[in-house]
Amino acid sequence: MGPHGNDAWGDGPGDGRPAGPRPAPAADPASGAQSGWDDNWRRGAVPHWSDLEEDDAHDESGTMVRPYTITRGRTAPERDDLTLITVLTTAEEEADAALARGSRAGARGIQPEHRLILERCRRPAAVAEVAAGLDLPVSVTKILLGDLVAQGLLKARAPLSVARAAGGMDLGLLTAVREGLRRL
Amino acid sequence: MATPHSATDHPAAAAAPVAPAAVKILIAGGFGVGKTTLVGSVSEVTPLRTEEYLTRASIGVDDLAGVDQKTTTTVALDFGRITISPELVVYLFGTPGQERFWFMWNDLVNGALGGIVIADTRRLETSFASIDFFESRGIPFVVAINCFHNTNTRTPDEIRAALDLDPQVPMLLGDVRERDFGRDLLLALVDHLMDLAATPAG
Predict the structure, then answer these.
(1) Which of A19, A153, B90, B105: disulfide with A148, CB 3.0–4.6 Å?
(2) For residues A156, B21, B99 and B193, what is the CA-based torsion angle, rounded to 10 degrees?
(3) Which of A15, A30, A177 has the CB atom closest to B35's CB atom?
(4) Rounded to whole angstroms, how far apart are CA atoms B186 and B183?
(5) Tens of pLDDT along B12-23?
(6) Whole-complex ipTM
(7) Which residues on A lie below 8 Å from B23 (Cβ)?
């Protein structure tokens, strides 16, 4: 991880808006904030591909291979409805049964990453949180999550719609958010 | 975070946790402007980091390399969370510093409640792209002028003019390291959203 150089500027989002000159920005000092994550639940469980990658962010060919071995070569989830903030919750009974069976499973059984996810999601967690905890890219994590949702071991809750096309956002939602923020 | 899970307390279905609904707010701005700092100042957890592979070819129009030169870039994403209630969680995503990559990250952008663009008066131009992006996508946003360097010699009107901000767009000056300022920014965004909801621009 870390900054990948200063090539931040293309031609913008490609919508043709005039935007004026946009000089390349300076390097990103904010990228060092890797310590202190909430990663207790994954520590010590499995040796991890990313441990080998700490200062190797430019070796993109290398980082492409290993995560996808975890997914058995799949590069796209079978379901496309998982978003960064889809909230996942372990289906306790089904998961416990599957985890018990999994101890004797072969290649088709529950993988270590699946097991970690099921343990993690006993408390509801968003896809992004699961990915951060596993230290796997979001797309790889989604594949693993999709496996478990498909087996009925995880329940997925889609994010709230914030569609603003018709008459603005839900005022009830906004009011609830506002009340919560005021307590910060 | 919720209370630690006990392996003995889940035989009954009723004990199963109910998943909260989630919404997200994007924190944008140029390199090193304080996005992760802001996330950290209001998040109930230390900012988490995850990453994603983005394929350069899907940038589309500004890709000069050609589709057969498809390359994949890893972008890192810092985020935090604020639990509003057992039923509702707000996720705060600090957008990756490399704008052209997060701009095409549809999963990051789609469904966002709104955005906060952080700007630094010493280099306002590094936040132009984020402002343009939110405007073009119709994502409501507020602007935070990060003054933690204490070097701001511009008036709010000057900054607003330099950023070419719509008069409706709220702009706040403060220190993103301070939780109160982070809270005020989020409240300003929600108030702005409520104003927009009350008076649809059509």
Answers:
(1) A153
(2) 150
(3) A30
(4) 5
(5) 444 456 789 999
(6) 0.84
(7) 85, 159-160, 162, 173, 177
